[in-house]
Design brief:
Elements: E1 2-5, H1 9-14, H2 16-28, E2 32-34, H3 44-48, H4 52-65, E3 71-74, H5 77-90, H6 95-107, E4 108-110, H7 111-118, E5 127-135, H8 138-143, H9 148-154, E6 158-162, H10 178-181, H11 183-199, E7 204-207, H12 210-222, E8 228-231, H13 232-236
Helix pairs in contact: 5-6, 7-9, 11-12
């Protein structure tokens, strides 16, 4: 099975270990993984700000970059949501590109849901000694209906204890440009999320979207919280090496 991996901008720039962990998980599941070097941003920042012309230009690049792959997989619910839910609407008045956008949408999957729903992976060989709580990102939960999939695999990680926080499905306040446009509201939401993380008794926070995790980890560090933050792929792939998210520059 040939898979094209959409790395995402944030993973490429801030946390390459997530991309490496995603490749490991996919290869262990029997996939041949390619990472097209010509891929760019999914165009979500432009789309969210109403710059539809630039969003379309970026989307065309992505569609062309991943043409021919049986599946396209991303370690991000947010970027996958853009490819699956919003690319088709960008080209609703362009029959040629609309067909291509729908084709990409049908082949695109978030990493953990691809492992569980498409490849039928039910367990991983990994260990993590700690108590974790999981944050459901808005895009993964609401656009892609991803909730049980990560928990199914996390329960098979050795030595790991899962303690659910209250209101795990509530937004962390990041929302792409939302945190820039509405900083006071965003900070209040982020503070509530941090309170729920602390109340869960967890020493580690996991999630599937690096944008959320960078937002939350930054707040936790400013509050001198000892809670470590990782992307779920790093735990499932047994690749928790070096600093946690927000603790320092990754070393590869």
């Amino acid at each position: 099975m040939r898979v094209g991996m959409f790395v995402t901008c944030l993973v490429d720039l801030f946390r390459p270990n997530i991309g490496l962990a995603a490749v490991k998980l996919l290869e262990e599941a029997g996939c041949q993984v390619d990472v097209p070097e010509v891929q760019t941003c999914c165009g979500q920042p432009a789309y969210n700000n109403g710059d539809l012309n630039n969003a379309r230009a970026i989307a065309r690049q992505v569609i062309d970059a991943f043409a021919g792959y049986q599946y396209v997989v991303a370690p991000s619910g947010s970027c996958t949501g853009m490819l699956k839910r919003h690319y088709p609407s960008l080209f609703e008045n362009d029959p040629q590109w609309r067909a291509k956008a729908h084709g990409l949408a049908d082949r695109s999957h978030e990493l953990v849901s691809f492992l569980t729903d498409i490849l039928h992976v039910s367990a991983v060989v990994a260990r993590y000694e700690g108590v974790i709580t999981y944050h459901d990102s808005c895009s993964a939960l609401r656009e892609l209906r991803i909730r049980e999939q990560p928990r199914t695999l996390l329960r098979t990680v050795g030595d790991l204890t899962l303690n659910e926080m209250a209101e795990t499905e509530v937004c962390c306040g990041f929302g792409g440009t939302f945190c820039v446009k509405y900083p006071e509201i965003s900070q209040r939401m982020l503070g509530d999320k941090a309170t729920n993380i602390k109340a869960s008794g967890a020493d580690t926070l996991l999630g599937g979207d690096l944008g959320c995790l960078l937002n939350i980890s930054g707040y936790l560090k400013r509050e001198n919280s000892p809670v470590k933050v990782y992307h779920i792929a790093e735990i499932l792939a047994d690749m928790v090496h070096g600093p946690a998210i927000g603790d320092g520059k990754d070393k590869q």
